[in-house]
């Protein structure tokens, strides 16, 4: 049975229960609408890939509800620690995803069998509450079938995609309406994708990339 919430009737305890039962959820973040599932459930993560018709060679990032969750799922390269902390202080919560070396327990299916994971803390209360409800970490990617337009609002999530998800949350429009910028800080700093945060703003914080 599909469960649909809006901002007036949302039940975070029920969402937690359903996620722990390995359902996946479409929900608003500050950048775009995401689809997420439990990090400890390979079944839930597979559901995300299947809903998106996405290749398992494409990794999924993890959204966190607080900065202290970062080192629970990833290692911070000591050489880059100061730069990473500056990025977090300046751009979190917000539209910057930071790639770091993953902890061993993080499922390989989530990272396309790679040794790194992208992490972001969104700047939207409803997203943070959903993430916090399952322990503060929620693997999430955009709520669309691969090749479709990335949804910036609930209305832009396609009917085909909605049919593949157990929990739907209508939170209106995402405030930023643009995917996050991704920076790899697992070794030498490298911009992987330009999005909500301009490269020039990042370079003001950590220097030329």
Question: How do you describe this structure in short?
Answer:
With 209 residues, the chain is an alpha/beta fold.
- DSSP strand (E) fraction? 15-25%
Describe the biggest sheet? Answer: 11 strands, mixed
Number of helices, where a helix is a run of at least 4 consecutive DSSP H or I residues: 7
Q: How many runs of DSSP E, i.e. beta strands? A: 11
Shape: globular
> N- to C-terminal separation?
48 Å
Topology overview:
Blueprint: E1 3-6, H1 12-20, E2 25-28, E3 33-36, H2 42-52, E4 61-64, H3 70-73, E5 74-75, H4 81-91, E6 96-102, E7 116-120, H5 125-133, E8 137-142, H6 159-162, E9 167-170, E10 181-184, E11 190-193, H7 199-206
Parallel strand pairs: 1-9, 2-9, 4-7, 6-10
Antiparallel strand pairs: 2-3, 3-8, 4-8, 5-6, 6-7, 10-11
State the main characteristics.
209 residues, alpha/beta, 7 helices, 11-stranded mixed beta sheet
Characterise the protein shown here.
The chain has 209 residues and is an alpha/beta fold. Helices cover 27% and strands 23% of the residues. It is built from 7 helices and 11 strands. β2 and β3 form a beta hairpin. It is globular. It starts with a strand and ends with a helix.
């Amino acid at each position: 049975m599909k469960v649909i919430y809006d901002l007036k009737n949302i039940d975070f305890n029920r969402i937690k229960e359903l996620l722990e039962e390995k359902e996946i959820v479409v929900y608003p973040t500050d950048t775009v609408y995401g689809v997420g599932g439990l990090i400890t459930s390979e079944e839930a993560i597979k559901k995300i890939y299947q809903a998106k018709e996405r290749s398992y060679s494409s990794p999924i990032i993890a959204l966190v509800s607080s900065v202290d969750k970062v080192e629970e799922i990833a290692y911070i390269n000591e050489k880059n620690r100061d730069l990473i902390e500056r990025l977090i202080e300046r751009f979190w919560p917000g539209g910057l995803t930071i790639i770091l070396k993953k902890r061993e327990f993080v499922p390989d299916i989530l990272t396309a069998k790679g040794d790194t994971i992208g992490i972001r803390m969104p700047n939207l209360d409803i997203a943070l509450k959903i993430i916090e409800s399952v322990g503060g970490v929620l693997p999430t990617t955009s709520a669309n079938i691969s090749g479709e337009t990335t949804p910036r609002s609930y209305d832009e999530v396609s009917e085909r995609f909605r049919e593949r998800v157990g929990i739907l949350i209508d939170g209106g429009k995402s405030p930023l309406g643009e995917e996050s910028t991704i920076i790899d800080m697992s070794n030498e700093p490298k911009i992987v994708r330009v999005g909500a945060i301009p490269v020039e703003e990042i370079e003001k914080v950590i220097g030329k990339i």
